[in-house]
Amino acid sequence: MSDTPEPAPKLLTNRPIDGEISMIKAHLMEMSDWSLQMVQQGMAAMKAADPAAAARVVGMDDRLDAFDVDIEHEAIRILIARQPAARDARTLGAVLKVNTYLDRIGRLGLDVAKYVRDTPVKPPLPQWSLLEMMCEQGCSMVRASMSAFTTGDVHLATQVYDADDAVDELNRQVLKECIHGLQGDPPEPPELVIYVLISRHLERIADNACKIAEKTIYMETGHRRREFLTANNKVAL
Amino acid sequence: MATIHTFPDSDVKLTVDHVSAYYGKTKAIKDVSFQVPTNAATAIIGPSGCGKSTLIRCLNRMHEVTPDARAEGKVLLDGVNIYTRDPSEVRYRIGMVFQKPNPFPTMSIYKNVCAGLRLNGVRNRGVLDEAVIRALKQAALWDEVKEQIHRPGAHLSGGQQQRLCIARALAVQPEVLLMDEPCSALDPIATAKIEQLIRDLKGQYTIVIVTHNMQQAARVADYTAFMYLGELVEFGPTAAMFETPKETLTEQYLTGRFG
């Protein structure tokens, strides 16, 4: 009748849902690569003022849609079949959100390409280099957030947040320089308005990277961003 | 260490206070303590053999009916230890529905429902009629049986028989309703009806339900207790526990890593 310590349960190490979640995360990584290609090729088309290149980016939208639909179907199928709870449920919730964020990222690249297709553009103005920096940093943030998401690296996810300030600052700088240029005497070309729009798109791409990082933290810890930052003595963004 | 949610005293109907339960020398429940909130549904989940049915049977002194079984500790109903009261009185106030529908086979639907009242000396036909109709309506069975109320209860379908047993438990107007895997013998449609019933009844009764079906706990229970090998591992709001369990063992069970 003595209270001896009870043995720990023997744990299943290879549940069916583990393989399904690995697979769906791999699909999200493919989608992430595709979305970033749309952004980078959209920016390249704008820089080269190449409507044909822009049209190719527009043509990439169908596959982006297919990723979105397929991943959503797969996530819902797993939800129905496995009725997950706890970390599995959080992961599938995060998958559905990350799917949407990646779709938005690809569409922002698509919008950049559409400016080239629909608006006569000239070779890059001096402010273009700021946009290239923003694109590089935003894409880097998306890659880092997706790496954190697939590996469950909470530390890396928090670093994505830290990088967002620099992109926001660049966005403000683009806005300031473009307004200055448009008000100049003589005013700089009206393409600067497009630059402001692109800057906003790139800033949104970085924001979506932060959202992916946020979902990674939720998936791993069960905490929403503010709860997590408070628990770790950090100030909420 | 277990993670146990607590309530203000005014919200508590039952207090399980250091309860242990034995079958002979085997300790099936090990020093379990938690509170059951008033007018809410509380689920007890856990793998087979974890002691969830034994625990629920300690809540109305049904455990001690088993030969060679005994319990230690206190179960307070509105602050009074039920182990200091007459067991019949306890079971009048804390009703129970079992895994397998068990209507009295030779009794009509009517007599099944009023069996508890008659056992307690109620003979007035008007009082009995009123109690039977009320209980059958509460159990969502009245519309299906009102034309055949004097037919044997055993002639009903499995799901109807279980609702008849719920009506029988409700007829004496208990304060707490214990349900030990009430849907495990039922098909999905009958299960859905019982689950809806639990949601409807929990505003009027304090309900404790044992279930081996985690999703059922998630669907019907406001609070959930997770047990493992006779110990209470975690007790808290169901939604929070199923989304972000506090204990590793709970996480492992909810995600099907064992059980």
In brief:
The complex is a heterodimer of chains A (about 240) and B (about 260). By secondary structure, chain A is mainly alpha-helical.
Task: Describe the fold and architecture.
The complex is a heterodimer of chains A (237) and B (259). Chain A is 79% helix and 0% strand. Chain A is mostly helical and 237 residues long. Chain A has a single domain (16-231), classed as Methane Monooxygenase Hydroxylase, Chain G, domain 1, CATH 1.20.58.220. The longest helix of chain A is centred in the N-terminal third of the chain and has 33 residues, at 16-48. The mean pLDDT of chain A is 92. In chain B, a hairpin with a 2-residue loop joins strand 10 (223-228) and strand 11. The mean pLDDT of chain B is 95. In chain B, helix 3 (109-119) packs across helix 4 (125-138) and helix 3 packs parallel to helix 6 (158-171). The interface between A and B is medium-sized, with 19 and 27 residues.
Mind sketching the topology for me?
The complex is a heterodimer of chains A (237) and B (259).
Chain A: H1 16-48, H2 51-59, H3 61-82, H4 86-118, H5 128-151, H6 154-182, H7 191-221, H8 225-231
Chain B: E1 3-4, E2 12-23, E3 26-37, E4 41-45, H1 52-58, E5 69-77, E6 80-81, H2 87-93, E7 94-97, H3 109-119, H4 125-138, H5 142-145, H6 158-171, E8 176-180, H7 188-201, E9 206-210, H8 214-220, E10 223-228, E11 231-237, H9 238-243, H10 248-254
Parallel strand pairs in B: 1-11, 4-9, 4-10, 7-8, 8-9
Antiparallel strand pairs in B: 2-3, 2-5, 5-6, 10-11
